[in-house]
Every structure is written in C-alpha cells, then in structure tokens.
Amino acid sequence: MKITRFTSVLLLVCATAVITLFLISSKSALTDFPETPIKEWSVRWIQEDEPKQQTPSLTGSWQSRTIDNPQTAIPDGVVGVWVHIQIPPTTQWMSPGLMVDRFYGLNISVYEGNRLVYQSKRDFYVEQNHLLLPLSIKSDASDLFVRIESKRQAGPNSVIHIGEFSSLSNYSDRRELPDVLLGASIAFLGLIMLLCSGYLNRKQRSSWIALSLIALSTGILMGSYSAFPFISYPGIGKPLMLLFDLSMDVLFPTLYYFVIPIFEGDYVILKKVGFWLNGYFAFCFILTILYNLIGEPIFFYYQLFTLWIMAPMILLQLVLFIILSIINAFKGNKDSVILSTGIFLLALSGVTDLVLYFISKERHIFFYWKIGVVCMIATLIVLLASRISADYKRLLSYSKELELHNRQIQKAEKIKILSDLAASIAHEVRNPMQVTRGFLQLLSNKSDAESKVHFKMAINELDRASAIITDFLTFAKPELDTVVRIDLRQELSTIETIMCSMVAMHQGVLRVRVPENLHILGNPSKFKQAFINLIKNSIESLRDEGIIEIDAWAEANTVVIRIKDNGEGMCEDQIAKLGEPYFSTKTKGTGLGLMVTFRLIELMKGTLEFRSAIGKGTEAIVRFPLAEE
Fold this sequence. Notes:
Number of domains: 3
Largest sheet: 6 strands, antiparallel
C-alpha cells in the first residue's frame, strides 16, 4: 500500500511539473535577449472591389490598434486588411528580425517600403498563423506594410517583437515545439494501444479501442493546433487540417462512449443521446471529407455543422461529464474518485476554453484543454499503478491458495493410500501378532534372566506395532458409533485425571479451566482419544518447569478449546506439515496419531489449528459447533 501511495504522489508531482512547463512555455516573455516590443500599429480594411496595389498611402482611412484592443474580426464586405508597423532603428542587432506570436491570416505579403520581402499563401482554411521574418539594418525608423487576405480574422493579436533574428527563431521553436512533441507522443501511444487491441478479449476490446482512439485523436489535435507544422511544412497543411477536423469528429463521440459506462447507474436516456450524438458526428465526418474534395461551394454548410452547431453540443457534453464526475466521486470508491477527478479536470478545462471562445471579442486561443489532457493522463497512470499493485497482491494471494490447495491434494492422496492399505491388511497383520506376543510371554516365563530382557524388548516392540495398527484401523474406519451430547467440563476433567500422572513423570503441571454448560455433539470415546493425543504431544515437548493449560469458552455459536504448552515449539514449515502421514517432530514418531486426531475432530464437525514458535511453545485450538439446548 505504501508503494502505491508513493507512486501516486510521484505521478501527480510529474503531472504538475508538466502543467507548469506548459504554463511557462505559453506565457513566458522574451527575457533571454534584448528586444523591442511594439504594442501599437494601424490597419486599413481591403474592400472586395478594391484593386490590388503594391503598398497603400499612409493617408486615408487608417485605424489605430493596440495589443489591448487588436480587433482582428473582419467586417462584412471586406476581404482582408493592410497593417502598418513603425519599425524602430535596427542598428543594435547584427541580424534584426520581426516576430508576431499570434497572427491571423491566410495569404500574407510583407513589404519593407515598396520592396516585397515575404510572401505566404495557404490553400487550406487555417487562419491561425505566425509571422517571423528578417529585417534590414537601418539607422532610422522605417515603415513595414503587411497585406493580409483572410475570411474571419486578420492581423496581429499579440505583441510585435523586434530583436535578433536567430534569438527570435529559437524562441519561436521553443514556444511551439512542446505542443507538437507532446501531441505526437500521445498520438503514438494511442496508435500502439490500437495495434495491441487484438491481444485482448472481446469484453475488454471495445473500451480499449475507445481509449486508444481518444489518445490518438487528442494527440493529433494537440499537434496540429500549433502553428509550427503549418509554418515549417506548408505542403502538408491541407492534409493536416483534414486530420484535425476528422479527429474532432472522432474524439467527442468516442469520449462519450468511453466515459458514460464508467459512471455507475442506469443512464438509459444518456445512452439514447449517445446514439444520436454518434450519428451527428458521423455526418460531420462525411461533411468534412466532402468539403476537402469540393471546396468553397459548401464552406457555409461545413462551418455551420462543424463549428456553430458542434461547439455548443461539445460544451453541453463536457458540462454533463462534470456533473456525472462530481456525483460519481461521492460514492467513496478510491479508483472511482481518481478517475472522476481526471474526467472532471478534462471537462472543466474544455468548458473553460469554449466559454472564453464564445464570450471573447477576439478569437480565443484554446490552451486550457491541454492541461486537462495532461491531468487525465496522469490520473489514468495513477489508476493503472493502483490496479497493478492490487493485481500483484491478488496474484500473491492466489499463489498462496494454490500452494495450500496442492498440499491438500497431496495430503488427500496420501490419506487415501493409507486408508486403503489400513482397511486391507490391518486385521490380517494384527491377529498373528497377538498370537506371537502370547507365545513370547510364555517363553519368557520359562527362560533365564538374561533372555527375559530380550523377550521383554520383543514384546514391547510388538505392542508398539499393535498401537500403530490400531491407529491405522481408527484412521481407515473413523465412524462415530454413537453421537451424544458431551459435557466438556466433565470430559476434560476425566482426561485431566488420566493424564496427570504422565505430566508429573515429565515434571510438568497440567491446568484445566472449563466453565459449566458447554456442550457439543460427538462420541465421548473418540473425543477422549483425540484430546489425549494432543495432550501427549504437548507433554513430550515439555522442558524444565513445563506447563500445559487447557481452556474452553463459548464464542458466538462455537466452542473453543485451547491446549497451550511452553515446550520446544515448531517453525512454520513444521506446522504446515502437521497431520501428514509419516511426519513427526519426535524421533520415533510416525505422525499417525495426529493424523487420526485431525480425522476424529473433523468427523465431529470441528476444526484444529496450530500456532507455534521455536522456543515459545505451541497452541492447539479446536473449534466445535455449540450444541443447542
């Protein structure tokens, strides 16, 4: 459990670090080199019927813009905008350059005075752009004109930086690359997960494929939402934009399919909503492909269904996820709380971006959803670590149970062999042994003193063999002849009287404490035999000042009898083998006596358990059902 908690904390710290890096990379300023920020510029709208000229005159309808009020939205009847930027002297830099982080426009032409210095055209509809270009070294201030043609937005939406071109370029890469690299990593992970889905069974495969598609589409969205690939590789802009749109059409129905079954409850209405939601996103999927094939004639319908209708639907879907995750988090299950937290953070970050998109005057740059994705991944990793830890504990438990089961099977096989052997030959062997013993006693009486010693040894060994055969017979046919109500206090007092002398011979003490009115159902003779065997084992393990304590008490619907000694004790391996034939801790023991004891207690519907430690003695705990009045 400690390992799981440590892993969870470590992963959460890593997730926090990643989020912090995102915030720093997205909000950091240019502090590692001298630069001149330009926060004001002027614009002039380009009308539809206006002829294209090289550079416009500074006289006329120019409007002032600032970083606090960029106003990039294009009015009706306008096809673009001219942007005029006053460039300060650039002699302080060896290779001056200009950079605008957020810049909107499809077709861009930049003029330094009347000279064209930069041109970019796009055949795909991505207005989010980035402007980075070198400037000439000039000792005086100069004018820079930017002609932008676009559809919805055009012009700068952030500070215009003037500085060393190489430093601006490095900063631009550092700013954009984290999104691309993280998106590519998540997409690659989703692709590998998708390829591995064939190894899962049918029940697991559907949710695994859904999670794979979520990771794949999220990675594509994160990587293609950055301006870096469109600027660095303009040739792949159109297929990359198609991937972006198709990923949107795949992500949200798949996310709905994955999330809703996670929350416990019979959400029949939500499942029906999911059916219609899948149908709508499938329609948008087809419409996106058609727009990329046909182009401008169906742009209005493409924008209507994939933006103006889809965005509110996604917002409602994310709000639903927030509500369900809060409800599910209060159910108390640890895994449920972890997963609900990840879904809640993902949905909350998406809702934040969408709300800012709808209420902001300028086009909002979606950023918070990336934090939500990282948090969701972090919670999934924490949940996976928790599941791995739980599975390891379960596997360890199964391994122990399997080992115990194998031991029981081996023990059962040995018992069956012994039972068959005892039933077939015990009687046949016992009768001739009794005859032999009788003749040995007769010959012993007629022999000299020296021979009598040998006859006595032979008779003792025959008696020992007879006792073993008796154990065999008891084990082979341990049926209870009669079952009566046994008064434990009376029976254990009788056993105390029988065993006291044997305990005294071993210089020990026997203490019996049994309350009145404890009764069980069983056979008194078999009961005595089982407990005499247990007490004899305790006596033979005693050392100096040995004590044997017998206690009994009622516990719920059972009677507990404990036989405790302070003898030599046993290790765990010896305890595990108790009751097996031919295993004994005594030099001349056969293990049959304890095996018979287990069998007799089992016949009276009882259980026998041993607890012991080397040098600390042994406890034998016997439990019987309490006899009803």
